[in-house]
Amino acid sequence: MAIGKKKSSSNEFESKVYSKKMTPGKVVIYILLLFWLFINIFPIYWMFTFSLKSNEEIFGANVAGLPNEWLWSNYSRAMNTGSMGVYFLNSVIVAVVTILITLIAALMATYAITRFKWKGSKPMNSFFMLGLTIPIHASIVPIYVILINLKLTNSLTALIVPYSAFSLAMAILICTGFMIEIPYELDESASIDGCNRWGIFFKIICPLMKPAVSTVGIYTFLQCWNELMFANIFNSKEEYKTLPVGIQGLSGAYTTDWGPIGAALAVATFPMLFVYIFLSRRIQDSFIAGAVKG
User: Fold this and answer.
1) Most confident of 148-157, 193-202, 255-264, 265-274
2) Which of the four, 28, 34, 194, 233, has the lowest number of CB atoms within 10 Å?
3) Residue 183 main-chain phi, psi, to 5 deg
């Protein structure tokens, strides 16, 4: 019996080792994955090397290779030309304030819709979801008229308010999927312990909504950081322009030095990549949790 057990255990070990060996199917899959990785990484590599080249290298002499001369001065020229530092600061302010407003409004609206029992909860949720059906750029004219009447053009508020409004529907949709699954027994237990509505919201609900908060924050950040149309139309003064508008203004009417433009594009792009890299795990966890809950 002992000999039989040894043989069976050795056979299991051999089968496990054999299963880990490379098969032709696995080789093909790995090659395809490496090719897909190259396709996704190459634009980032190209933009970074593009930002360190001169016009001669960009247009023909060295299009895809590493720079023959690493022109780090392109970054200083980009930041010193056209007030790029001010544009970057404006983009950061707009993004941070928009995220905060969207998160606060979405969490409170979702809390009222999902945790309170009142007749208008479902119609109100449907009303918020109508925001998903409205293209953001289809409302430029009415928003522009409203901002002019309120004398809010040429200010950061002219961007923060529309960005927050158009991010709210998706934020409520994401938060609703999570908040519905939080047991009502937690609210009842907290209420018995003396918590009022605000205490339940801040001490019980908000800490459990961290995955949804991360997802909404990144979604809102990407939406307002890259937006060009509103920023170009609603603000004409230099001190209120954001990065996309500032980069657009670097292109001259007759001649253009493309190295600093590439540096400005890198400055505008890499913060988004870093934000996603550091928070991507939380986003994946939120989507997995939402799928399990659904």
Assistant:
1) 148-157
2) 194
3) -60, 140
Q: How far apart are CA 127 and CA 156, in angstroms?
A: 27
Length of the chain as a residue count: 294
Q: Provide the residue ranges of all domains of the chain, joining segments of one domain with +.
A: 2-73, 82-293
Write down the pLDDT at residue 103: 94
- What CATH architecture is 82-293? Orthogonal Bundle (1.10)
Q: Is 121 exposed, middle or buried (0-12, 13-18, 19+ CB in 10 A)?
A: middle
At residue 120, the pLDDT reads 79
Q: pLDDT tens-digit profile of 48-96?
A: 888 888 877 777 767 777 888 888 888 887 777 767 788 889 999 999 9
> What is the SS3 string spanning the chain?
CHHHHHHHHHHHHHHHHHHCCCCHHHHHHHHHHHHHHHHHHHHHHHHHHHCCCCHHHHHHHCCCCCCCCCCCHHHHHHHHCCCHHHHHHHHHHHHHHHHHHHHHHHHHHHHHHHHCCCCCHHHHHHHHHHHHHCCHHHHHHHHHHHHHHCCCCCCCHHHHHHHHHHHHHHHHHHHHHHHCCCCHHHHHHHHHCCCCHHHHHHHHHHHHCHHHHHHHHHHHHHHHHCCCHHHHHHCCCHHHCCHHHHHHHCCCCCCCCHHHHHHHHHHHHHHHHHHHHHHHHHHHHHHHHHHHHC
Pair of tokens at residue 116: 């309170």
